[in-house]
Amino acid sequence: MPKRRILSLWFPRLEAERLIRAARGLHAGPLAVVAEQSNMQVITSLNAEAQTAGLRVGQPVRDAHAMCATLITRHRNAPAEAALLSVIETDCADMGLSVQMGIADTLGAAWALARYAGHEATSDRNGDAISLEARATRARRQNGGTGSRAGPRRR
Questions:
Q1: Model confidence band, residue 67 (pLDDT cutoffs 50, 70, 90)
Q2: The domain containing residue 93 runs over which residues?
Q3: DSSP designation for 106
Q4: What pLDDT, on a 0 to 100 scale, did the predictor assign at position 10?
Q5: Is residue 31 within 8 Å of residue 50, measured between CB atoms?
Q6: Domain with 53 in it: what CATH number?
C-alpha cells in the first residue's frame, strides 16, 4: 500500500474571487469573468451572487446580461492566475513541502498538468504492438464495429 498522500485543491470561483481581492474597490454585486471562445464571449468564472442570479459558467455573456442587468464583467487574466500559482508554490517551498500544480479549464486537464507537466512522455509499448493494435482497429471499423471477421450478413 502506498504511503503517499495527495491533496487536491479546487477553487470553483478562483478567477472571480481573485479579481475581487485584487480590486478592493469593486462594488458588491454579481460578477462574471469572461473570455473569448469560438468567436463569442463566454463566462469562465462567477462569484456567488452571479450564480445565485441563475448564471452559469460557459454561458454566453449576452445571455447573462439579459438575465441579470446588474452583472459586472471583467476579462480573464491568465498571467495573473499563473502568478497566483507561483505564490502557492513559494509558500509550499517555505514550509518544506514538494508540490506540483496545474491550472486549466477542466478538472482532468488540471489534474494531468499537475502530475505530468514537465515530464517526458514515455510508453512501454513498442512499434510492433502499436502496429498490431492499428490493424485490429481498422478491421473492427470495416466490419461495422462488431469485432467479428465474418463481414456483413446477406439475405
A1: very high
A2: 79-116
A3: S
A4: 77
A5: yes
A6: 3.40.1170.60
- Structure pTM? 0.61
Closest CA to 103 of 16, 7, 14: 14
Evaluated on CA atoms 53, 56, 61, 63, the torsion sign reads negative
Report the amino acid identity of residue 2. P
Query: Distance of alpha carbon 131 from its chain centroid, rounded?
Result: 32
Residue with cell 478592493: 24
Domain edge (last residue) among 22, 57, 76 = 76
Q: State the virtual CA torsion across 6, 7, 8, 13 in degrees, nearest 10.
A: -170
Q: Could you give the residue ranges of the DSSP H alpha helices within the chain?
A: 14-22, 48-52, 61-67, 78-94, 107-116, 127-142
> pLDDT tens digit string along 82-133?
788 888 889 989 999 888 888 877 788 888 888 887 765 555 555 555 566 6
